[in-house]
Protein backbone atom coordinates (compact mmCIF):
# COMPACT_ATOMS: atom_id res chain seq x y z
CA UNK A 1 0.00 0.00 0.00
CA UNK A 2 2.86 2.36 0.73
CA UNK A 3 4.12 2.02 -2.81
CA UNK A 4 0.92 3.35 -4.36
CA UNK A 5 0.03 6.76 -5.66
CA UNK A 6 0.79 8.54 -2.43
CA UNK A 7 4.47 7.91 -2.94
CA UNK A 8 4.44 9.97 -6.10
CA UNK A 9 2.35 12.87 -4.88
CA UNK A 10 4.88 15.23 -3.28
CA UNK A 11 7.10 17.44 -5.40
CA UNK A 12 10.70 18.36 -4.64
CA UNK A 13 12.02 17.59 -1.16
CA UNK A 14 8.99 16.26 0.66
CA UNK A 15 8.16 17.62 4.09
CA UNK A 16 5.50 15.19 5.24
CA UNK A 17 4.76 14.19 8.80
CA UNK A 18 4.42 10.63 10.01
CA UNK A 19 1.31 9.09 8.39
CA UNK A 20 0.51 7.28 11.61
CA UNK A 21 -0.42 10.60 13.15
CA UNK A 22 -3.21 10.98 10.61
CA UNK A 23 -4.91 8.00 12.23
CA UNK A 24 -5.27 9.73 15.58
CA UNK A 25 -8.84 9.54 16.75
CA UNK A 26 -11.15 12.51 16.96
CA UNK A 27 -11.41 11.78 20.67
CA UNK A 28 -7.76 12.76 21.15
CA UNK A 29 -8.40 16.06 19.44
CA UNK A 30 -11.54 16.68 21.49
CA UNK A 31 -9.57 16.09 24.67
CA UNK A 32 -7.37 19.04 23.71
CA UNK A 33 -4.09 17.20 24.13
CA UNK A 34 -1.58 20.04 23.89
CA UNK A 35 1.22 17.65 23.00
CA UNK A 36 -0.52 16.12 20.03
CA UNK A 37 0.68 17.62 16.74
CA UNK A 38 -2.16 18.78 14.56
CA UNK A 39 -2.98 16.50 11.65
CA UNK A 40 -1.29 17.74 8.51
CA UNK A 41 0.24 16.20 5.46
CA UNK A 42 3.16 18.59 5.50
CA UNK A 43 5.57 20.06 8.00
CA UNK A 44 5.02 23.68 7.12
CA UNK A 45 7.99 24.88 9.18
CA UNK A 46 10.40 22.92 6.98
CA UNK A 47 8.95 24.59 3.90
CA UNK A 48 9.27 28.00 5.56
CA UNK A 49 12.84 27.22 6.59
CA UNK A 50 13.67 26.31 3.00
CA UNK A 51 12.13 29.51 1.66
CA UNK A 52 13.86 31.71 4.23
CA UNK A 53 17.21 30.09 3.42
CA UNK A 54 16.72 30.94 -0.25
CA UNK A 55 15.95 34.54 0.77
CA UNK A 56 19.07 34.58 2.94
CA UNK A 57 21.12 33.35 0.00
CA UNK A 58 19.91 36.22 -2.19
CA UNK A 59 20.57 38.73 0.61
CA UNK A 60 24.17 37.68 1.25
CA UNK A 61 24.98 37.49 -2.46
CA UNK A 62 23.54 40.88 -3.25
CA UNK A 63 24.63 42.88 -0.21
CA UNK A 64 27.63 40.93 1.07
CA UNK A 65 30.11 43.01 -0.91
CA UNK A 66 29.11 46.21 0.90
CA UNK A 67 28.35 44.59 4.26
CA UNK A 68 31.24 42.25 5.19
CA UNK A 69 29.40 40.88 8.21
CA UNK A 70 26.82 39.55 5.75
CA UNK A 71 29.26 38.15 3.17
CA UNK A 72 31.50 35.11 3.47
CA UNK A 73 34.35 35.27 5.96
CA UNK A 74 37.67 35.70 4.11
CA UNK A 75 39.03 32.61 5.87
CA UNK A 76 38.52 31.69 9.53
CA UNK A 77 35.28 32.84 11.17
CA UNK A 78 31.61 32.52 10.39
CA UNK A 79 29.52 35.32 8.89
CA UNK A 80 25.87 35.29 7.88
CA UNK A 81 26.61 34.00 4.37
CA UNK A 82 28.44 31.00 5.81
CA UNK A 83 25.18 29.61 7.20
CA UNK A 84 23.48 29.26 3.80
CA UNK A 85 25.14 26.09 2.55
CA UNK A 86 24.86 24.08 5.82
CA UNK A 87 21.23 25.21 6.20
CA UNK A 88 20.46 23.78 2.76
CA UNK A 89 22.24 20.52 3.62
CA UNK A 90 20.39 20.31 6.94
CA UNK A 91 17.05 20.79 5.13
CA UNK A 92 17.93 18.16 2.54
CA UNK A 93 18.87 15.74 5.31
CA UNK A 94 15.71 16.39 7.29
CA UNK A 95 13.54 15.75 4.24
CA UNK A 96 15.20 12.42 3.38
CA UNK A 97 13.45 10.22 6.01
CA UNK A 98 10.15 11.91 5.17
CA UNK A 99 10.45 11.46 1.41
CA UNK A 100 11.72 7.87 1.43
CA UNK A 101 9.50 6.38 4.11
CA UNK A 102 6.69 5.65 1.63
CA UNK A 103 8.91 3.84 -0.85
CA UNK A 104 9.38 0.37 0.64
CA UNK A 105 11.08 -1.00 -2.47
CA UNK A 106 14.79 -0.26 -2.01
CA UNK A 107 15.66 -0.65 -5.67
CA UNK A 108 13.03 1.88 -6.70
CA UNK A 109 14.14 4.28 -3.97
CA UNK A 110 17.78 4.06 -5.06
CA UNK A 111 16.82 4.73 -8.69
CA UNK A 112 14.89 7.81 -7.62
CA UNK A 113 17.85 9.08 -5.60
CA UNK A 114 20.35 8.46 -8.40
CA UNK A 115 18.20 10.18 -11.02
CA UNK A 116 17.74 13.26 -8.83
CA UNK A 117 21.47 13.33 -8.09
CA UNK A 118 22.32 13.27 -11.79
CA UNK A 119 19.89 16.12 -12.44
CA UNK A 120 21.45 18.24 -9.70
CA UNK A 121 24.96 17.51 -10.98
CA UNK A 122 23.96 18.43 -14.52
CA UNK A 123 22.43 21.76 -13.58
CA UNK A 124 25.23 22.52 -11.13
CA UNK A 125 27.97 22.06 -13.71
CA UNK A 126 25.99 23.88 -16.39
CA UNK A 127 25.10 26.90 -14.26
CA UNK A 128 28.20 27.20 -12.07
CA UNK A 129 30.76 25.40 -14.18
CA UNK A 130 31.18 28.26 -16.62
CA UNK A 131 27.94 28.84 -18.52
CA UNK A 132 27.49 32.44 -17.35
CA UNK A 133 31.14 33.20 -16.70
CA UNK A 134 30.99 36.86 -17.81
CA UNK A 135 27.39 38.16 -17.89
CA UNK A 136 28.52 41.79 -18.03
CA UNK A 137 30.20 41.04 -21.36
CA UNK A 138 27.26 38.97 -22.60
CA UNK A 139 29.64 36.02 -22.89
CA UNK A 140 28.03 32.65 -22.27
CA UNK A 141 28.91 29.02 -22.77
CA UNK A 142 31.11 26.43 -21.09
CA UNK A 143 34.86 26.85 -21.42
CA UNK A 144 35.98 23.22 -21.35
CA UNK A 145 39.56 24.23 -20.53
CA UNK A 146 38.47 25.98 -17.35
CA UNK A 147 35.09 24.47 -16.48
CA UNK A 148 34.49 24.45 -12.74
CA UNK A 149 33.62 20.98 -11.48
CA UNK A 150 32.70 21.99 -7.95
CA UNK A 151 29.74 24.12 -6.90
CA UNK A 152 26.74 24.48 -4.64
CA UNK A 153 24.36 22.12 -6.44
CA UNK A 154 27.16 19.61 -6.90
CA UNK A 155 27.82 19.53 -3.17
CA UNK A 156 24.12 19.20 -2.39
CA UNK A 157 23.86 16.41 -4.96
CA UNK A 158 26.75 14.41 -3.51
CA UNK A 159 25.60 14.86 0.10
CA UNK A 160 22.06 13.86 -0.89
CA UNK A 161 23.32 10.76 -2.75
CA UNK A 162 25.48 9.50 0.11
CA UNK A 163 22.99 10.13 2.90
CA UNK A 164 19.88 9.00 0.98
CA UNK A 165 21.53 5.72 -0.02
CA UNK A 166 22.70 5.31 3.59
CA UNK A 167 19.13 5.84 4.78
CA UNK A 168 17.79 3.31 2.27
CA UNK A 169 20.39 0.67 3.12
CA UNK A 170 20.24 1.01 6.90
CA UNK A 171 16.54 1.60 7.53
CA UNK A 172 14.54 -1.27 8.95
CA UNK A 173 10.92 -1.59 7.87
CA UNK A 174 10.06 -2.87 11.33
CA UNK A 175 10.98 0.42 13.00
CA UNK A 176 9.53 2.86 10.50
CA UNK A 177 6.22 3.15 12.32
CA UNK A 178 7.60 2.66 15.81
CA UNK A 179 7.13 5.49 18.26
CA UNK A 180 10.17 6.41 20.27
CA UNK A 181 11.60 8.95 22.67
CA UNK A 182 14.86 10.06 24.22
CA UNK A 183 18.11 8.54 23.01
CA UNK A 184 16.43 5.43 21.57
CA UNK A 185 16.46 7.12 18.15
CA UNK A 186 20.24 7.16 18.27
CA UNK A 187 20.17 3.42 18.97
CA UNK A 188 17.65 2.77 16.20
CA UNK A 189 19.95 4.41 13.64
CA UNK A 190 23.25 3.58 15.29
CA UNK A 191 24.82 2.41 12.03
CA UNK A 192 24.33 5.85 10.49
CA UNK A 193 26.23 7.47 13.34
CA UNK A 194 29.02 4.90 12.89
CA UNK A 195 29.30 6.04 9.26
CA UNK A 196 29.32 9.68 10.40
CA UNK A 197 32.17 8.97 12.83
CA UNK A 198 34.11 7.21 10.07
CA UNK A 199 33.67 10.22 7.78
CA UNK A 200 34.92 12.54 10.52
CA UNK A 201 37.95 10.36 11.30
CA UNK A 202 38.92 10.08 7.62
CA UNK A 203 38.49 13.84 7.12
CA UNK A 204 40.59 14.77 10.16
CA UNK A 205 43.24 12.19 9.25
CA UNK A 206 43.63 13.60 5.75
CA UNK A 207 43.52 17.26 6.81
CA UNK A 208 46.16 16.84 9.50
CA UNK A 209 48.14 13.97 7.99
CA UNK A 210 48.73 14.80 4.30
CA UNK A 211 52.04 16.44 3.40
CA UNK A 212 51.48 19.55 1.26
CA UNK A 213 54.47 20.34 -1.00
CA UNK A 214 55.28 23.60 -2.76
CA UNK A 215 52.98 24.30 -5.70
CA UNK A 216 52.73 26.68 -8.61
CA UNK A 217 50.00 28.12 -10.82
CA UNK A 218 49.54 30.41 -13.80
CA UNK A 219 47.61 33.63 -13.09
CA UNK A 220 44.37 33.55 -15.12
CA UNK A 221 42.90 36.87 -13.96
CA UNK A 222 43.23 39.33 -16.84
CA UNK A 223 42.93 42.27 -14.43
CA UNK A 224 46.02 41.20 -12.51
CA UNK A 225 49.43 42.73 -13.22
CA UNK A 226 50.78 39.19 -12.99
CA UNK A 227 48.44 37.87 -15.68
CA UNK A 228 50.04 34.93 -17.49
CA UNK A 229 52.90 34.59 -15.02
CA UNK A 230 53.66 31.35 -13.20
CA UNK A 231 53.85 31.95 -9.43
CA UNK A 232 55.13 29.58 -6.77
CA UNK A 233 53.63 29.04 -3.31
CA UNK A 234 56.00 27.70 -0.67
CA UNK A 235 54.57 25.08 1.69
CA UNK A 236 56.45 21.86 2.48
CA UNK A 237 54.41 21.14 5.59
CA UNK A 238 51.52 19.10 6.95
CA UNK A 239 48.60 19.73 9.29
CA UNK A 240 48.23 23.43 8.45
CA UNK A 241 44.81 25.08 8.05
CA UNK A 242 46.07 28.34 6.54
CA UNK A 243 44.98 29.40 3.03
CA UNK A 244 47.97 28.28 0.94
CA UNK A 245 49.07 25.04 2.59
CA UNK A 246 45.97 23.11 3.67
CA UNK A 247 45.31 19.55 2.52
CA UNK A 248 41.83 20.45 1.25
CA UNK A 249 43.22 22.68 -1.49
CA UNK A 250 46.07 20.26 -2.23
CA UNK A 251 43.67 17.38 -2.93
CA UNK A 252 41.55 19.57 -5.20
CA UNK A 253 44.59 20.75 -7.16
CA UNK A 254 45.71 17.18 -7.69
CA UNK A 255 42.33 15.65 -8.61
CA UNK A 256 40.25 18.48 -10.08
CA UNK A 257 43.12 20.43 -11.58
CA UNK A 258 43.93 24.01 -10.67
CA UNK A 259 42.30 25.41 -13.84
CA UNK A 260 38.99 23.79 -12.85
CA UNK A 261 38.73 25.45 -9.45
CA UNK A 262 37.01 28.67 -8.37
CA UNK A 263 39.09 31.60 -9.59
CA UNK A 264 37.97 34.29 -7.13
CA UNK A 265 37.80 32.71 -3.66
CA UNK A 266 36.84 34.67 -0.57
CA UNK A 267 40.42 34.62 0.69
CA UNK A 268 41.16 37.47 -1.75
CA UNK A 269 39.71 39.67 1.04
CA UNK A 270 42.12 38.20 3.62
CA UNK A 271 44.11 40.72 5.68
CA UNK A 272 47.34 39.33 4.21
CA UNK A 273 46.13 40.16 0.69
CA UNK A 274 44.52 43.60 0.94
CA UNK A 275 44.44 46.57 3.27
CA UNK A 276 40.69 46.79 2.56
CA UNK A 277 39.99 43.52 4.41
CA UNK A 278 37.31 42.33 5.09
CA UNK A 279 36.19 44.28 2.00
CA UNK A 280 37.58 43.39 -1.40
CA UNK A 281 40.18 45.86 -2.60
CA UNK A 282 43.51 46.22 -4.39
CA UNK A 283 46.15 43.74 -3.34
CA UNK A 284 49.08 44.83 -1.21
CA UNK A 285 52.39 45.30 -2.97
CA UNK A 286 53.85 42.54 -0.81
CA UNK A 287 50.77 40.28 -0.97
CA UNK A 288 51.72 36.58 -1.06
CA UNK A 289 51.32 34.70 -4.32
CA UNK A 290 48.40 32.59 -3.09
CA UNK A 291 46.19 35.70 -2.92
CA UNK A 292 45.61 35.49 -6.69
CA UNK A 293 45.46 31.68 -6.79
CA UNK A 294 42.29 29.64 -7.31
CA UNK A 295 40.66 27.71 -4.47
CA UNK A 296 37.59 25.49 -4.58
CA UNK A 297 35.23 26.21 -1.65
CA UNK A 298 33.07 23.25 -2.73
CA UNK A 299 35.94 20.85 -3.24
CA UNK A 300 36.30 17.09 -2.75
CA UNK A 301 37.42 16.80 0.87
CA UNK A 302 35.28 19.66 2.12
CA UNK A 303 32.22 18.13 0.40
CA UNK A 304 33.09 14.82 2.06
CA UNK A 305 32.99 16.60 5.41
CA UNK A 306 29.77 18.42 4.45
CA UNK A 307 27.95 15.08 4.43
CA UNK A 308 27.93 15.33 8.23
CA UNK A 309 25.62 18.37 8.08
CA UNK A 310 23.15 16.28 6.11
CA UNK A 311 23.40 13.34 8.52
CA UNK A 312 22.56 15.66 11.42
CA UNK A 313 19.55 16.84 9.42
CA UNK A 314 18.50 13.22 8.88
CA UNK A 315 18.56 12.66 12.63
CA UNK A 316 16.20 15.61 13.11
CA UNK A 317 13.97 14.06 10.44
CA UNK A 318 13.95 10.81 12.39
CA UNK A 319 12.83 12.73 15.46
CA UNK A 320 9.94 14.11 13.43
CA UNK A 321 8.96 10.64 12.22
CA UNK A 322 9.18 8.71 15.48
CA UNK A 323 8.29 11.21 18.20
CA UNK A 324 4.67 12.32 18.36
CA UNK A 325 4.81 15.01 21.02
CA UNK A 326 5.61 18.63 20.16
CA UNK A 327 7.38 19.04 23.49
CA UNK A 328 9.53 15.94 23.10
CA UNK A 329 10.46 16.88 19.54
CA UNK A 330 11.53 20.35 20.58
CA UNK A 331 13.49 18.96 23.51
CA UNK A 332 15.47 16.73 21.15
CA UNK A 333 16.13 19.42 18.53
CA UNK A 334 17.00 22.23 20.94
CA UNK A 335 19.21 20.07 23.16
CA UNK A 336 21.17 18.81 20.18
CA UNK A 337 21.38 22.28 18.66
CA UNK A 338 22.73 23.86 21.85
CA UNK A 339 25.20 21.02 22.40
CA UNK A 340 26.57 21.37 18.86
CA UNK A 341 26.78 25.17 19.15
CA UNK A 342 28.69 25.01 22.42
CA UNK A 343 31.07 22.32 21.13
CA UNK A 344 31.81 24.26 17.94
CA UNK A 345 32.40 27.53 19.78
CA UNK A 346 34.74 25.84 22.26
CA UNK A 347 36.75 24.24 19.46
CA UNK A 348 37.07 27.58 17.69
CA UNK A 349 37.99 29.86 20.59
CA UNK A 350 40.34 27.27 22.11
CA UNK A 351 42.18 27.33 18.74
CA UNK A 352 41.79 23.57 18.45
CA UNK A 353 39.78 23.64 15.19
CA UNK A 354 38.84 27.05 13.74
CA UNK A 355 35.50 27.83 12.17
CA UNK A 356 36.12 27.70 8.43
CA UNK A 357 33.48 27.35 5.75
CA UNK A 358 35.93 26.83 2.89
CA UNK A 359 37.59 23.89 4.66
CA UNK A 360 34.25 22.79 6.17
CA UNK A 361 35.91 22.09 9.52
CA UNK A 362 34.33 20.10 12.31
CA UNK A 363 33.76 23.19 14.46
CA UNK A 364 32.01 24.84 11.50
CA UNK A 365 29.77 21.78 11.12
CA UNK A 366 28.85 21.92 14.81
CA UNK A 367 28.05 25.64 14.89
CA UNK A 368 26.04 25.75 11.67
CA UNK A 369 24.15 22.49 12.28
CA UNK A 370 23.39 23.59 15.83
CA UNK A 371 22.12 26.93 14.56
CA UNK A 372 20.00 25.14 11.94
CA UNK A 373 18.40 22.96 14.61
CA UNK A 374 17.58 25.95 16.81
CA UNK A 375 16.23 28.06 13.92
CA UNK A 376 14.07 25.18 12.74
CA UNK A 377 12.76 24.63 16.28
CA UNK A 378 11.74 28.28 16.46
CA UNK A 379 9.95 28.07 13.11
CA UNK A 380 8.28 24.83 14.20
CA UNK A 381 6.85 26.60 17.25
CA UNK A 382 5.65 29.58 15.22
CA UNK A 383 4.27 27.72 12.20
CA UNK A 384 3.29 24.19 13.22
CA UNK A 385 2.31 24.78 16.84
CA UNK A 386 1.13 28.39 17.12
CA UNK A 387 0.08 28.43 13.45
CA UNK A 388 0.85 32.12 13.03
CA UNK A 389 -0.77 33.20 9.79
CA UNK A 390 1.65 35.96 8.80
CA UNK A 391 4.50 33.45 8.53
CA UNK A 392 2.56 31.59 5.85
CA UNK A 393 2.56 33.34 2.46
CA UNK A 394 1.87 33.93 -0.37
CA UNK A 395 -0.36 31.07 -1.55
CA UNK A 396 -2.12 27.97 -0.25
CA UNK A 397 0.04 24.89 -0.25
CA UNK A 398 -0.84 22.66 -3.16
CA UNK A 399 -1.07 19.47 -1.09
CA UNK A 400 -3.29 21.13 1.49
CA UNK A 401 -5.50 22.32 -1.36
CA UNK A 402 -5.60 18.83 -2.85
CA UNK A 403 -6.52 17.44 0.56
CA UNK A 404 -9.45 19.83 0.83
CA UNK A 405 -7.93 22.20 3.38
CA UNK A 406 -9.50 25.52 2.40
CA UNK A 407 -9.58 27.46 5.62
CA UNK A 408 -8.15 30.65 4.14
CA UNK A 409 -4.91 30.51 6.13
CA UNK A 410 -2.77 30.76 3.03
CA UNK A 411 0.31 28.82 2.06
CA UNK A 412 3.92 29.06 3.11
CA UNK A 413 6.89 31.22 2.26
CA UNK A 414 8.43 28.29 0.49
CA UNK A 415 11.33 27.44 -1.74
CA UNK A 416 9.14 26.30 -4.60
CA UNK A 417 11.29 28.09 -7.15
CA UNK A 418 14.54 27.85 -5.23
CA UNK A 419 16.30 26.01 -8.03
CA UNK A 420 15.53 28.85 -10.42
CA UNK A 421 16.87 31.37 -7.91
CA UNK A 422 19.99 29.22 -7.39
CA UNK A 423 21.20 30.07 -10.89
CA UNK A 424 21.91 33.59 -9.68
CA UNK A 425 24.01 32.41 -6.75
CA UNK A 426 27.74 33.08 -7.10
CA UNK A 427 30.37 32.18 -4.55
CA UNK A 428 31.73 35.61 -3.82
CA UNK A 429 29.12 37.85 -2.32
CA UNK A 430 27.88 40.91 -4.10
CA UNK A 431 28.55 39.54 -7.59
CA UNK A 432 25.32 37.70 -8.36
CA UNK A 433 23.98 38.79 -11.73
CA UNK A 434 20.93 38.07 -13.83
CA UNK A 435 21.26 38.71 -17.55
CA UNK A 436 19.67 37.31 -20.70
CA UNK A 437 21.40 34.35 -22.28
CA UNK A 438 22.35 35.75 -25.66
CA UNK A 439 25.09 33.30 -26.51
CA UNK A 440 25.06 29.54 -26.18
CA UNK A 441 27.29 26.55 -26.77
CA UNK A 442 30.71 25.24 -25.83
CA UNK A 443 33.84 27.16 -26.68
CA UNK A 444 37.59 27.18 -26.02
CA UNK A 445 38.32 30.90 -25.83
CA UNK A 446 36.66 33.99 -24.40
CA UNK A 447 35.47 36.72 -26.74
CA UNK A 448 36.08 40.02 -24.93
CA UNK A 449 34.77 42.29 -27.69
CA UNK A 450 31.16 42.25 -26.50
CA UNK A 451 29.54 45.45 -25.32
CA UNK A 452 29.00 45.56 -21.56
CA UNK A 453 25.43 45.42 -20.39
CA UNK A 454 24.38 47.92 -17.74
CA UNK A 455 22.23 45.70 -15.54
CA UNK A 456 22.07 47.85 -12.40
CA UNK A 457 20.33 50.99 -13.61
CA UNK A 458 17.47 50.54 -11.16
CA UNK A 459 19.82 49.90 -8.25
CA UNK A 460 21.89 52.96 -9.06
CA UNK A 461 19.18 55.50 -9.85
CA UNK A 462 16.25 54.30 -7.75
CA UNK A 463 17.93 53.08 -4.59
CA UNK A 464 21.49 54.37 -4.26
CA UNK A 465 20.82 57.94 -5.44
CA UNK A 466 17.63 58.30 -3.40
CA UNK A 467 19.36 57.28 -0.16
CA UNK A 468 22.69 58.93 -1.05
CA UNK A 469 24.43 55.83 0.27
CA UNK A 470 25.80 52.93 -1.71
CA UNK A 471 25.67 50.54 1.23
CA UNK A 472 22.09 51.36 2.26
CA UNK A 473 20.92 51.59 -1.35
CA UNK A 474 22.29 48.17 -2.27
CA UNK A 475 20.81 46.59 0.84
CA UNK A 476 17.35 48.02 0.08
CA UNK A 477 17.72 47.04 -3.58
CA UNK A 478 18.39 43.43 -2.59
CA UNK A 479 15.53 43.35 -0.09
CA UNK A 480 12.90 44.84 -2.38
CA UNK A 481 14.01 44.41 -6.00
CA UNK A 482 15.42 40.90 -5.57
CA UNK A 483 14.05 39.06 -2.53
CA UNK A 484 10.56 40.55 -2.68
CA UNK A 485 10.55 40.18 -6.48
CA UNK A 486 11.44 36.48 -6.37
CA UNK A 487 8.96 35.93 -3.54
CA UNK A 488 6.21 37.34 -5.75
CA UNK A 489 7.39 35.29 -8.73
CA UNK A 490 7.45 32.15 -6.59
CA UNK A 491 3.99 32.96 -5.28
CA UNK A 492 2.58 33.35 -8.79
CA UNK A 493 4.22 30.11 -9.94
CA UNK A 494 3.01 28.34 -6.83
CA UNK A 495 -0.57 29.56 -7.19
CA UNK A 496 -0.69 28.52 -10.85
CA UNK A 497 0.81 25.12 -10.02
CA UNK A 498 3.99 25.61 -12.09
CA UNK A 499 7.06 23.92 -10.60
CA UNK A 500 10.52 23.15 -11.78
CA UNK A 501 10.98 19.70 -10.35
CA UNK A 502 14.37 18.03 -10.09
From TrEMBL:
Q: Where is this region: Disordered?
A: 1-39
Q: What UniProt keywords are attached to this protein's entry?
A: Membrane, Transmembrane, Transmembrane helix
Q: Protein name, please?
A: Heparan-alpha-glucosaminide N-acetyltransferase catalytic domain-containing protein
Stretches of Basic and acidic residues bias are at 1-21
* Alphabetized PANTHER family for the sequence: HEPARAN-ALPHA-GLUCOSAMINIDE N-ACETYLTRANSFERASE-LIKE PROTEIN (DUF1624), LD22376P
The membrane spanning regions, by residue number, are 43-63, 83-101, 113-132, 152-169, 190-211, 300-321, 333-353, 359-383, 474-493
Residue ranges of domain Heparan-alpha-glucosaminide N-acetyltransferase catalytic in the record = 42-166
InterPro entries annotated for this entry? HGSNAT_cat (IPR012429)
Signal sequence bounds: none
Please give the organism: Panicum virgatum
Amino acid sequence: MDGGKKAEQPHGDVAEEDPGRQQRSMVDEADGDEKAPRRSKRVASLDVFRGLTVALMILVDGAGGEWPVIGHAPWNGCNLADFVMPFFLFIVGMAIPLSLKRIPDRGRAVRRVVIRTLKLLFWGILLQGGYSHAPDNLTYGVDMKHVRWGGILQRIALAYLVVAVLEIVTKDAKIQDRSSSGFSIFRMYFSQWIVACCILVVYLSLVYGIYVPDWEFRVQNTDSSNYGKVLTVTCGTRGKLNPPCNAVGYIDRKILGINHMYQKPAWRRHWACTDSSPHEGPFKNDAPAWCVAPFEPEGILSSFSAVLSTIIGVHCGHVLVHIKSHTDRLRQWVAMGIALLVLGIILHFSHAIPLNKQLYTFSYICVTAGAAGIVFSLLYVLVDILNLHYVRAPAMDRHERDAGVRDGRGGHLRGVSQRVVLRGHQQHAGKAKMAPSLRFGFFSSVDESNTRLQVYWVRKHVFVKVWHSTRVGILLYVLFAQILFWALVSGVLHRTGLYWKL
